[in-house]
């Protein structure tokens, strides 16, 4: 497929395409007295010092007028246009002349000199352009500019919300394209109406603008297609091309006569970007499909505009093609956002599962601690019953007493299993539950392991609160914070380790504070502890606190913060009182 496209392209670039409009005008003449004419190309018009009228005569190729009708619009300062031998009317204050098969004479235009060669610009329109675009030109251009400005704002907002550089580059690109089209639209007015303007300066400004458009197109290509991952060699080549474009911009700025794109056509650069998209698509990046369509459209528009291959005003072509390309790329970026969101959701689900798996080792240890004492107690009950039987002291009262003791231990063990099972239970539905009971369940899970380390845990609250949210996920967060505090006590060999849990309520939030005396968090890492895969533990995964923050802030629309206190750290969970 790629070989076929390249083959077609090589054929197209060798076509010397000329439109019918290009053949409308023949030889051109100039007269300084209205009588004697000389070829315009040979006239020494640069040294004109006269206030007399100057006459231009342009021969018309009658052969192409048998089946065609054209309209020519003359852009110039209104006070310098004197007359025309052909009937004309004003369109936006500029003379508009109809050229058809009934014309049997050359076009003669008379202008005032004012000591300078009169500046004017002739634009040729075919009948289709006249009927459907020229009459509504301002609306047509306004829609084009509106699309580009909307695309600029649309992508800028997305960049500010997700910080993806592809959106920033494309946003800047749309703004530059807007200015390019606006300048191209106004260029004819600039050249024809401002007599003091330096045309080289205007040409250089447009060239630099085009260079910046190419530069940001390459940056957008690198980011959107992720060429560094999919095509490292093309990625390097495109970076070199971007550097060349920047150097070329400086060359134009300091030496207006130097511009590599006078020798290399712009559509070659676009073709390179299309080629990179093909390679990326072939290597598995499906979002490159729409990207490819957009660049193929833009390549076609630029190619037709540069080569006159298509019978349409190049200004109109660009005002149609570039906004269409903007709409297509906006769709592609929208799909890119969707893809990013899906990947993010998948990564978060994976991280949640990893976080739970990382906690399982701790859980197994806690189950062992929780069950060790009741199993020992059950063992003593069995030994006591056997001893009573051996000594003939076994009776109904003794059996009843020991049975109650055994049942209490078994009930405790059963409750432990329920607590652990609830911790690992995942539910996509929110439910009403007691905050105090949720906190107490987590304390029970860690109670025995805390006892072994002599960790004192205190719970302060004035009243219980009912909340509607994801109980299992909140339990996971509280467990992670309590377990992290335990690890810090062990790491820092804290004397008299203590955890205080405070529950309170404001107008907007339920507040859960978990405060320890483990020495606090180093200031240089305080802002990093919620980042994924950041850990200070030798065997840690660095996902516990990250997932805790995701759960609280994304899933529950609350806040999870940390501050250092005098002798430790304070984690603050804020949960909305109502949603």
UniProtKB/TrEMBL annotation:
Annotated GO MF terms: ATP binding; phosphorelay sensor kinase activity
Signal sequence residues: none
Organism superkingdom: Bacteria
Domain Histidine kinase residue range list: 366-579
Coiled coil (residue ranges): none
Chemical reaction(s) catalysed: ATP + protein L-histidine = ADP + protein N-phospho-L-histidine
Membrane-crossing residue ranges in chain numbering: 139-160, 167-185, 205-225, 237-254, 260-281, 288-304, 316-335
E.C. numbers: 2.7.13.3
Annotated keywords: ATP-binding, Kinase, Membrane, Nucleotide-binding, Phosphoprotein, Transferase, Transmembrane, Transmembrane helix, Two-component regulatory system
Pfam families for this protein: 7TMR-DISM_7TM (PF07695), HATPase_c (PF02518)
Protein name: histidine kinase
Organism: Halarcobacter ebronensis
UniProt lineage: Bacteria, Pseudomonadati, Campylobacterota, Epsilonproteobacteria, Campylobacterales
